[in-house]
Amino acid sequence: MFVYSFGLDICFKQGKVAQTACMSACQHLSTSLMQMLLDSELKQISMGAVQQFNLDVIQCELFASSEPVPGFQGDTLQLAFIDLRQLLDLFMVWDWSTYLADYGQPASKYLRVNPNTALTLLEKMKDTSKKNNIFAQFRKNDRDKQKLIETVVKQLRSLVNGMSQHS
Which Pfam family is one of this chain's hits (predicted)? Predict the structure, then answer.
């Protein structure tokens, strides 16, 4: 993986230059991964794809926690991935009640998840569920999940609209 070979090259260099290069690489990787998820060209995403994406982000976090460059305090490098981590945790655990109840609170578990970002990703999943499952309307589980997604989408839209009115 590129990140590991990049890390090996950097680990032989010392000091602030190596730290800056490593932090910049992690931030760039995190930003690129987030943009990939939210890209308007990506019309649909399945839960399986989100799970695989989560595994990829875990690999990035493992690299960041492996101390590829000496001198970082604690989990400083891992913080480059915090926005992605909180977004993926929200989707992996499907913890919408907590997200919506705690939104805007300083101690929120999902403090770094922007409602617009969550809405964009959820709408991509909503489209997938509808199109890939012709018989979903006949299965109670699938119907319930669709209702939940639609309810959460409405609540997220309200949050997004509330944010734009306060700006």
Answer: Sec15_C
pLDDT in tens, 94-121: 999 999 999 999 999 999 999 999 999 9
SS3 for 131?
helix
Q: Chain centroid to CA 44: how far?
A: 15
Helix (H, G, I), strand (E, B) or coil at 12: coil
Query: Could you give the CA distance from residue 164 to residue 102 in angstroms, rounded to a whole number?
Result: 19
pLDDT in tens, 11-31: 555 688 889 999 999 999 999
> Which are the contacts of 91, defined by CB distance < 8 A and separation ≥ 6?
47, 50, 121, 122, 125
**Which residue has 């999902």 as its token pair?**
110
The correct answer on CATH 1.20.58.670 for the domain covering 2-166 is: yes
Tell which residue, 156, 37, 30, has the closest CA to residue 85. 30
pTM for the structure as a whole: 0.83
Measure the CA–CA gap between 65 and 73, rounded to whole angstroms.
11
* Alpha-carbon distances of 54 from 59, 71, 110, rounded to whole Å: 9, 28, 16
